[in-house]
Structure of Ubiquitin carboxyl-terminal hydrolase 47:
Amino acid sequence: MYIIPSLLCLNGRCIESAAEEPRVLCIVQDTTSSKTINERLTLNLPASTTVNKLYEDVAHKAGYVNGTFCLGWVNTGDQVRAPLDQASEMSLVLSGFEAGKKNFLQLTDKDGEQPQIASDESGTADSSGLDDSSQDRFIGPLPRDGTVGCSSDYSSPSYSYSSILNKSDTGYVGLVNQAMTCYLNSLLQTLFMTPEFRNALYKWEFEDSEEDPVNSIPYQLQRLFVLLQTSKKRAIETTDVTRSFGWDSSEAWQQHDVQELCRVMFDALEQKWKQTEQADLINQLYQGKLKDYVRCLECGYESWRIDTYLDIPLVIRPFGASQAFGSVEEALQAFIQPETLDGPNQYFCERCKKKCDARKGLRFLHFPYLLTLQLKRFDFDYTTMHRIKLNDRMTFPEELDMSPFIDVEDEKSPQTESCTDSGAENEGSCHSDQMSNDFSTDDALDEGICLDNTSSTERVLKPKSSLTFELFSVMVHSGSAAGGHYYACIKSFSDSQWYSFNDQHVSKVSQLPSVLNSTNAYMLMYRLKDPSRNAKFLEVGDFPEHIKRLMQREKESEEQEKRQREIERNTCKIKLFGMHPVKMMMVENKLEVHKDKTLREATEMAYKLMDLEGVVPLDCCRLVKYDEFHEYLERSYEGEEDMPMGLLLGGVKSSYMFDLLLEIRRPDQVFQPYKPGEVMVKVHVVDLKSESIAAPVSVRAYLNQTITEFKQLIAQATGLCAETMRVILERCYNDLRLLSVPNKTLKAEGFFRSNKVFVESSDSTDHQAVFTDSVLWKLLDRHGNTIRLFVSLPEQSPGSLANRTSCPKASADSEDSLDGAKGSRKSVEAILEESTEKLKNLSLQQQQQQSSSTSDSQKSSEHSDFEHIESPAQEPDAASQPSQTENCTRAASDTENQFPSEERSDSDVNNDRSTSSVDSDILSSSHSSDTLCNADSGPLPLANGLDSHSITSSRRSKAHEGKKEKWDTTEEDSGTDSEYDENGKIKADSQYLYFKAEPYSQEDGSGEGQKCLLVHVDKRITLAAFKQNLEPFVGVPSTQFKVFRVYANNQEFESVRLNETLSSFSDDNKITIRLGRALKKGEYRVKVYQLLVNDPEPCKFLLDTVFAKGMTVRQSKEELLPQLKDQCKLDLSIDRFRLRKKTWKNPGTVFLDYHVYEEDINISSNWEVFLEVLEEPERMKSMSQLAVLTRRWCPAQMKLEAFREVVLESSSVEELKEKVYALPSCSATDLILLLLLQGRGTFPCDISLLEIHQDLDWNPKVSTLNVWPLYICDDGAVIFYRDSTEELIELSEEERNELMKKESSRLLKTGHRISYSPRKEKALKIYLDGGPTKDPGQD
């Protein structure tokens, strides 16, 4: 029949039908809040759609009230397009949209107000509060074949939203995927859609006195089911249910199998329901019985037992077969098909008293009311030794007749029941929710679930029996054996409609004929068709009283959550800053204020939030607009105190491009108005006499002001003289510029929103000097390069604060001298203690002189530790008023004599291996030193030094925070050798470098006896000079302590490059000082590991030691001997162990005794070396020799023998064979060699015994070892060999499986790869006691 097509005119062009009408793809970005900024609303609309209709569609999909938002074009380049008129009746094409292309739009606020969320009753809102920003939202049919318009996409001019249905359409609520919990969601929805299970769960009543509701699995399931039935949300969380399982957040990222979860959950429910009416619920609903029998074929005697099952595992493809079963009926028939036991598998008949042929099989005796079928799609491929998923198509009927599979024989024999429930291993797994198809119109069709066209009439004619089951749930696994995604297709018994439950998305399945077939269906649920037993869901009015109370509580909680969301939607959230007048530090908070609150009310809220009540009056505070990044006050709000915050801030948002500052004034001050367009300048006044820099004073100026006018402005704010004023602008970090042109504007000089200047006004002659040679420049340069460090001293520091070398001031008046004398007074006890300490130091110095004759090699390996000497008590005056003592960097020769010490083993101190965290404590004595050090000419006195405000700049500190930290290494020093002696101390003159240290106590001080310093130091100082300045505080020479830099994760790394500066350090970095001999120039710290070639763990850490440049291997071995004996209890002779190269866990080159470090052996920082104990004297004498490790493979016994070393004189394969023949275990006449090639893993190159014989390439066709494919050019190569005449033993299936388990366990323990297991899985467990017991030794 011919149908005349309707004509549609568009842009003067006629289109014959709506199906051929061009389409417009609109992509809308929601910019109204930070949560939706990444969302994309995708609409595929007919070109004739009007703009007004577009607004309605966007409102429907976004969940907003129409008319409360604006739609505009995304501007590109210089093209600016007007927003779309909501009232326009023009078509999209006439409004500027392009058919067949992507059209990008922005959804924005209207009149500064965020869009209103549509009510739940409208069916358009996502009231769950879920953030779906990670996934696009789509309306209309999806484009296909890369085109926007497609005739098959559409059948009418109007489109529908059937692809994505919310609860108002389907009536069902989804479940949120926590991460990889789609398997859990599928099972929970299936149980919820089972009337008998849901009704029985509702009848159970929770007793508060018996258990914590948080840990009660039935109670949390009950709550979840009530929410699924009554909630107005689109989807709800399952975190309360998983918490009742005893799971933490990490379990949400574990992939598990839905059938395994079903079995484990049923077990947990049975345990929880003991001694209740629901104690036998699981068995009543899901448990069936089958007979496991063996029948003798000679006498007919049958031995059998009764087993129970909760599900029936059905094989998809029989073992060894290439074809899969075509239907569930075929698989069920194969399940009960008996096998014949004959030949070696004959059965011993009790009646015949001999082995006879027999028939073994299973018979179903009873089917459960709810029948669960598991399609075993996960299998193991013995050819590839990998787990695979079978995607063969298997049909399953909507109605399944199980009568052909039931055993009608009477059960008269005594039953020996044993709970051998059948099941499958943990095979199915899931990936994240990303694999779910949010836009599929029919999930069932996407996964290959389709139907034939059997009519309903034909189904009525089918005879029904008492064992007819109807399908109501198909749990689908899409993906591979490595991972995938679960969802469920479930039929509602209320309306017989099929729905797809795909995590939070619930949609209708379009059609479902009588026979289904699928390549991904994994678990099927059937219910027995029995009108007398088939139940209906309980309606809300029929709920038990305890469920009604629970529903009321959940409803109130949901209403409260909704009100809270409404408040959140109208709350402005902005960062709040303020300088606290007591703490004297910038405090940051988050100000959350309702949009209708006035500025005056917001100021009061900020006042309380900053904890200023009782500190300053409220009328001395105000809120100003603030740019925290530039530290810039943008504007103040005079006369706007009663304006609502929503208007003042430009709308309700969760984040703003600016901040607020709570400004505080003194009662006698008046707030200065801040106008837009002004620039803020922080003015630091410099005093050349005291060489100090004052705290900043804020001044506001305009960019068009001249330097002369700017000086007058500063003079008014600071009281300085403008005629003699010098103004220095710090344009960027430590970039100083003298502003000397009077008529030049601030804009021309490079001023920006926030600026920093230094001013000095005096009549000194320093004005006449060139700026870069002036004292002012040197002072500012020192200020710009000074950093603040926190130094933790050793807990048992032997130094005394009273026993420090100090340099007297070059010039001081009588008042300063009096203060110095007052600060240096000591009690009688202190003087006596100092005398005692001097005597002790003299004795220790003599001991050092006596021990100085020991060899250099012994010195390099010794460590030192020191006795703890308490600091002398000081007078209260000295404690309360820190003395200004100038310490200077001393020459190396003086240091050694001033701090003699007793040397002994420092292994205990050094055994921390640089990973301990910094402990803090209060330094008992108040002491500080201001030092401007020069190696030769002595100290340059500073009157007052720099205070803590002048030392650091918060802006510079932030700049450092943005930089990547440079990690210290112990590689060769980068400076010239002539600048430093062997201890790294300065020989020649150096520039004046600032150093100031004072006691510091942390608020969270821990550990009595530990001392901390707050050090201000010029970062251009070298590490050697820095250590010399720390000597008085540590109490030992710089060569006897180590400096460790502490990073953000509390890891510590030693800094040893003595001639490098502290330029990589920044403000507030932490340093830990540890006692022990520091590395000298040319020394390296070395970690020694023992090589145990035949142990399960071949690499064992022994100790840390020090090797020096120019030392021979034998010398290092001599120094190792006493350390090995003391620390590792290894008593060795020097000829019975060797050192060799260590690369990760692989042994390498054998080091010969005459090798010299740095000449023959490259050595670096944190070097690692293997120590190998020898059973016989060393056979390696020359570098031309080659040491390889050989291992014999015995295929007839399926075992590998122990490693044996072979030393070759050349790289000849023939020589290798001869040496192998000479091994005690070798009796073969023809050996085939194999090298485990690179990429097979680290030493000991373990491999599965099931792979080594066939999977590796034996007998390479080479005559030398140093060519392809062997490439053996260094010691430590691993070679397997075997007898070529020895055949591989044939294993039975049971023996192979047993060996596979043993190999899996062995290789897992050794940490080596198992080729047939792509990933390690975690067993699924539900904990009835609230959670797993944690090992107390674990973190």
Remarks:
- The chain is about 20% helix and 25% strand.
